[in-house]
Amino acid sequence: MGAGQKRSDLQANARAKLDDAILLLENGRYSNAYYLAGYAVEIGLKACIAAQISAETIPDKAFIKGILNHQFKTLVGLAGLAGLLKDEENNDQIFATNWALAAQWEPDARYDAIDPMSAQLLVEAIASPTSGVLKWIKTHW
Fold this sequence. Notes:
By secondary structure, the chain is an all-alpha fold. It has a single domain (7-138), classed as Up-down Bundle (Four Helix Bundle (Hemerythrin (Met), subunit A)). It contains 8 helices and no strands. The protein has helices at 7-26, 30-50, 61-67, 72-78, 82-91, 93-102, 116-127, 133-138. Helix 1 (7-26) runs antiparallel to helix 7 (116-127), helix 5 packs across helix 6 and helix 6 (93-102) packs across helix 7 (116-127). It is globular, with a radius of gyration of 15 Å. The mean pLDDT is 93.
């Protein structure tokens, strides 16, 4: 993630990563589909965090350092969405399952050979139009 990205740039980038993941999945490129789908979530959460930053203040050093991490749980907390995430998981079991799948993603997946089923499950969990992870993130960015 480049420094100085606008929230709208992050939003567009998250959507593009998921679109690319879908194309890769459809073309049998499972490892890369998996990898990019996870980045759609990470970048989407960073768009949510960007909405929390005021132009007139310098954020705390720990806050800035936290933004540079790839752990979804940390990013959800920095975005102020932990309670809302828990509520959504409690209200929508399919979303809870989708979130659990997405939360297993790590950037080191770029080194792994991902099987077709794992790639499909992750991409669908993130892209689902009804209970998808990115759909939920979009309501908060």
